[in-house]
Amino acid sequence: MTCMLAKLEKWQRNLIVLWIGCFIAGIGFSEIAPFLSLYVAELGNFSKGQLTIYSGLTYAITFLVVAVVSPIWGHLADRRGRKIMLLRSSLGMAIIIAACGFVHNIWSLLILRFLQGLCAGYIPNASALIATESPKEKSGSVLGILTTSYVSGNLIGPVLGGFLAQVFSIRITFVLTGILLLIVFFLSLFFVHETFTPAPESKKKIKHISPLSQLKNPKIIIVLLFSTMIIQMGNNSITPIISLYVKELMHNVGPITIIAGIIAALPGLSTLIAAPKLGELGDRKGNRKILVFGFLFAIIMYFPQGLVTSVWMLGVLRFMIGISDGALFPTIQTILSKESPSKLTGTVFSWNQSFQALGSMFGSLIGGIIPNFFDYNGVFIFTALSLLINFLVVIIFLPELRPSYNKNKK
Asked: pLDDT tens for residues 205-243?
């Protein structure tokens, strides 16, 4: 492998190694999710209400911490380099997730989940490093390819985690996940190359300058960050209800959990297929067109999901949602990288991670609250309306992102 990598250009070598690293990281982060609430149940004699609260806290606390600390890590990445952030994240996560397998009460688990949030940041720092080390004309393609890595890992992770928990135990699965992330640490340590020159620090004492003031168009950055939050909110809003909705559509007959798992995985599968092609198309035809397509396609696909009467039609529509994700997430990252000076790429990508974490948190809350008032179909309609409003905001406040903008300018 070392000889093969040595023949490639540095940015190509980074892409291969970081693809493998993000793939393994995606597996490690997602394979625990399906049984985390079952693990909570093993840690005490809880009532149904207590179990629901503690499970919710266990999931939410990591997202909350990620949202708060990501900008701090991003600022350090711009000052010290992205590779050291990759090493910090992968090694920290390896130790903490493995340690989760040895806890014996809920409070210890909550503390470790809190620390897990502090150690997050591998994937956004990998994206930032790829964005800055690759040729600008290929940034859409390489970020699209990198997207397939953690999406693939997220697809395989839940299946692998369920298998390991069944064959061994939940505790052993935490330890095995830690070992996977340790492999990611060594891959990043030995094979990732970064050409990083920190910005020279002035000897004079100067006032702190906001990173936003150093951006040529901060309005684009702000709108795209909120777009990341809304898109991720939509993706996560179905998580609390997917099994229940499938159960209702199947009239409580048949292999409900298997079908629900397949439907949950379908968006990731289509993202895996679509992201590289759409990234390449964005490099040739323009990122603005791909962004508009992604929004419109998502809106069209979300509305009917709440109106279907067949689980198979739901599956088709969920598969289509993955195509919109493959258009939106890499394109937003590409535009963020192009609109940010290289010295602030890590900062901007960390903001993006914070907003994505907030979207995950809000999505879970929405998916749990809205069905109490509007049934399950209300979740999909709310998500479609949120994306429609988001799209209108993009078009109204960012005319430079309209496909016709450059033509009108001429």
From this structure: 445 566 666 677 778 888 889 999 999 888 877 776 676
**For helices 139-167 and 170-191, what crossing angle results, to 10°?**
150
Residue 142 identity (one-letter amino acid): V
Yes or no: say if 381 and 306 are a contact pair by the CB < 8 Å rule. yes
Within a 13 Å sphere around the CA of 362, how many CA atoms are in the beta-carbon half?
Answer: 18
Q: Give burial (CB, 10 Å; 0-12/13-18/19+) of 194.
A: middle
The conformation of residue 100, written as its DSSP 8-state character, comes to H
The string of pLDDT tens digits covering residues 151-165 is 788 777 777 776 777
Residue whose tokens read 């950055």 = 221
In a 10 Å sphere around its CB, with 0-12 CB exposed, 13-18 middle and 19+ buried, how is residue 232 labelled?
buried
326: tokens are 């493959």
Per the rule left: phi > 0, alpha: psi between -120 and 50, beta: everything else, 172 is: alpha
Q: Considering all CA atoms of the chain, what is the largest pairwise distance in Å, rounded to the nearest integer?
A: 72
343 DSSP assignment = G
* Phi, psi angles (nearest 5°) of residue 202: -75, 140
Which domains are present in the chain? 1-195 (1.20.1250.20), 213-410 (1.20.1250.20)
* 198 phi and psi angles, rounded to 5 deg: -65, 145
d(CA 25, CA 28): 5
Please tell me whether the overall predicted TM-score, pTM, comes out greater than 0.70 for this model: no
DSSP 199: P
